[in-house]
Amino acid sequence: MSNPEIGGSEASAAGMGVSDYARVARTYWKHITVITLIVTVLATAWSAFRPRVFAAEATAIVLAVGTDNVSSLLAGDTLAKAKAKTYKSLAESRLVADKVSASTGVNMTGESLLGAVTVTVPRDTAEMRIKAESPNPTTAQRVADAWIVELARQVEERERAAAAAGQPAAPAGQPAPVVTPPISLVPLDPATVPTHPVSPGMGLTALYGAAVGLLLAYASALLRDRLDRRLRTAAEVENLFSVPVVGTLPVDLRLTGENKVLGGLPAAPAPGSRPQSPAFSEALRELRTNLTFLDVDNPPRIIVVTSSVSGEGKSTIAANLASAMAAAGDPVIVVDGDLRHPSVAKIFDVVPGIGITDVLTGKAEVDDVLQQRGDLPNLSILGAGRTPPNPSELLSSHAMKQLLNSLAERGIVIIDAPPLLPVTDAVLLAKIADGAIVVVRAGQTTKEQLTKSLGNIRKVNATILGTLLNCVPAKEFEGYSYYSPEPDSLDSTSSPEKAAARDKTASPDKAARPQPANSRETRSPVSEVGRDKFSKSSTSF
Which letter does DSSP use for residue 360 in this model? Predict the structure, then answer.
C-alpha cells in the first residue's frame, strides 16, 4: 500500500464520532484528571491568596410631592422613576465621591472611591442602591451611608434651585418665599457592617477552575490523540491499512519470566493464588479458528509470524499459537526462523544449539533435530541451530524452501521470523511461505512502522494473511470472566495435598503407584545419533 493510499484512508477515518471521543477520554483519563486537578488547585490557591473584600449596601428612594388626586399620584410616581435614572449619573460623579472622601475621612481619593462603589437602580422602581466595597467592613459601611447622605443633599440642592427658578420674583423689600422641591431623595435602609467577605468566593472559583481545567485537559487529550502515531485498536489498523486483524490478544501476567507457553489451555493457578482470566487462551482459540477460515479451499500450511520491531511479542505468540493448534489435535511444527537471535528453544525449554542450520549444511537430518515435549504430543520444535555468518542467504536458499515444504507435509508449520524493519530475513521467509501474520503491539507500534513493514512484504509479492493486535488492555476482554472456573473447583484441582488425600480415600493402593514425571522431564530428547553428531562436531560456519 502506497503512502497516498494510507493517507487517504487516514483522512477518511479522521472524522470523530461519539465513540471516538469516549475512547479518547478512556485512553487519557489520567492525563485529563491530573490537568483538571492542577487547574482547580491553582484557581483555588489564587482565590485564597487574594485580599478579602467586604461589601455594605445602603438604599434610598426618590419621592415626588403630590396630592391625594389619583392622577397626580400616578404622575408623581412616573416622575420619581424617571428622576431615579437621572440621579444615577449624579451618584457616579466625581463631585459626590470627593465630598464623601472628605466627610468620612477615609484614606482614599475620590477616584479610588468611584472604583469601590456601585450604583444600581432596579428596573421600574424609584429605588437607588449604593454598594461600597472595602477590605475593612467598617469603612464599607461608612462609605455607603455617607454616599446616600451626600447624594440626597446634592439632589435637594438641584431640585430646590430648579423650583426657585420657576417661581416669580418676590416684591422688593420682602423675603423670598420658601420653596419646597417637588422631588427628594429619602434614605430608606442604612448599611450594616458586613460580617462575611464577598470576595474571594473560593467555592465558586474552584468550580470555575474545575470546569476550565476539564476543558483544557480534554482539548490537550484530543491534541495528543491526533499527534499520537501509535496504533491502539483493531478498527484503526483495518481502516488505515485495509488489512484484516485476524485476532487480538490481551495482556496476560502469566506470560512472564520463563513461562511463555500456556499450551492453549488455562494454566492451573498455584495453591493460594487467585485464578487468572481465561481471556488469553480464549483469544488464542479465536485466532486459531480465524486462521482456518482465511482460505477454506487452500488453507495456509506454512505461516510466518513476524513484527515490525523487536519486543512486540511475536515469539511468544508463535509459540502459543502452535500450542493452541496442537491442543486441537493438529500436528504442528514450530520453526525458529530467527537465526540471529533464536528464542524458540528457550521458550519451549528444549535442547538449544541444534536445528535449521545443521539441516541446511548437511550435518543432520530433520528427524535428528526435531524435538518434542511430553505435555504437547502433537507439537514438534525445530530450533535455529548455531548462529551462521550469513542468515539471509540460508533462509532464501532453495534448501530452506525444500525443508519447509517437507515439514508442511507433516503438519502446519509456524515460523518465528525476525522483525521486518531491522533485517530482511522475515521478508525472505514470507516469500517462500503461504503467508505472514504481522504482530502489532497495541500502544507501541506506530503507523509509520506498520506502513513500512507491510510495504516490505508487498515488494516481494508475499501474502499478508493479516495482522494480530497484541497486548490489548485486559478490560476489553472482561466478558470472558463469566466463564472463569469456580474457586472451589480450582482449589480441588490445584492442591496436591487435597488430590493425594482424595486418592487415598478412593484407593488405598493408588498412592503407592509411581507418579508420572513432569512434562519437562518427559519431553522427547534429540535422537542419540543426532546427539553424538552434535557433540562431536565443533566446526563453525
Answer: H
